[in-house]
Amino acid sequence: MATLESLIGNTPLVDLDRVVKGCVEGVKLLAKVEGNNPGGSVKDRAAYGMFMGAEQRGVLNRETRIFEATSGNTGIALAMMAARRGYQLTLVMPETMTLERRATMAAYGADFLLVTAEQGMEGAIDLVNAKVANGEGIKLDQFSNADNWGAHYRTTGPEIWRDTQGQITHFVSAMGTTGTIMGVSRALKERNPQIQIIGVQPDEGSQIAGIRRWPQAYMPKIFEPSRVDTILDVNTAEAREMTRRLARDEGLFCGLSAGGAVAAALKVCQGLSQPGTVVVIIPDRGDRYLSTDLFL
Q1: Do both 125 and 244 map to the same domain?
Q2: Does pTM surpass 0.85?
Q3: What is the pLDDT of residues 189-237, one digit of tens each?
Q4: Of these residues, 28, 32, 41, 43, which one is catalytic?
Q5: Looking at the domain assignment, is residue 207 inside a domain?
Q6: What CATH number does residue 120 fall under?
Q7: How far is CA 210 from its chain centroid?
Q8: Which residues make up each annotated binding site for pyridoxal 5'-phosphate?
């Protein structure tokens, strides 16, 4: 009999043969569909890892309130795990987060606080830090917590290596907390140092839900630039167009960060002059964006 925890991970790789059409023969673009996790996103892995790590270190008890800044998916995953394991959770996020995300967090029993759009994620982080400094609770701190990238080092990276039979040549990931790319980079480079790790961020002036271009003062502490070979910029229009294309051409109903990541991955594929296997992360599902105009 399965448990909730046992359903996290081992997500499928899907061949994006229509998106990659026109590239050099032998170039494959494979999408790891993380929306298949029970909480609907790649963040289930990090949330589970951070809860397990905190429990093992003895920093959690049923009377402790957890505060965490989130742009959405991490909050949903943490709310799911808090409900499962019996902890109190308050999530802090910008008011621009979609109604679907707020409703999902509330369904799991989490409380949440909103900061203004102008304050953004930086303001959410500052508010969490103030709550913790005031003794109101603790934070798991996805931006500094090694259990974030550790979850991907133990699971996501090895799964990609296994499912491509070691044939992966390039790995592409949108960068938010950077936990996914940090953990997968470690895992893949240990197996083959020649694999290229490509990070994706919004270009100057673009806003893409789930992908961040961090001010230096707020750069996640878990991020190590040396573990990323290339960083590609994408704009909002590219991300939106590819998100819609994934739904209409490939039948993959994904969020905006997936569109940004796949748009960048396609550029990688188009730049190859010989066969290669490019794997890209699809972070979540499209149903979290239905209250927006993304699919209209």
Answers
A1: no
A2: yes
A3: 999 999 999 999 999 999 998 899 998 888 999 999 999 999 999 999 9
A4: 43
A5: yes
A6: 3.40.50.1100
A7: 7
A8: 73, 176-180, 257
Under 8 Å between Cβ of 220 and 143: yes
32 is catalytic: no
Question: Annotated binding site: which residue ranges?
Answer: 73, 176-180, 257
Q: What is the mean pLDDT of residues 165-192?
A: 98
> Quick one: pLDDT at residue 145?
97
Mark whether 257 is an active-site residue.
yes
For residue 158, CA distances in Å to 17, 48, 49, 129, 152 come to 23, 17, 16, 34, 8
* Average pLDDT value over all residues in the chain: 96
Q: Is residue 296 part of a domain?
A: no
Q: Tell me which of 186 and 293 has the higher pLDDT.
A: 186
| 197 shares a domain with 89 | no
pLDDT of residue 97: 82
User: Do 117 and 186 fall within a single domain?
Assistant: no
Domain C-terminal end among 103, 134, 165: 134
- Domain range enclosing 220: 4-36+156-289
How many independent structural domains does the chain possess?
A: 2
- pLDDT tens for residues 27-70? 999 999 999 999 999 999 999 999 999 999 999 988 889 999 99
- Residue 44 maps to a domain: no
Report the alpha-carbon distance of residue 236 to residue 198 in Å, rounded.
18
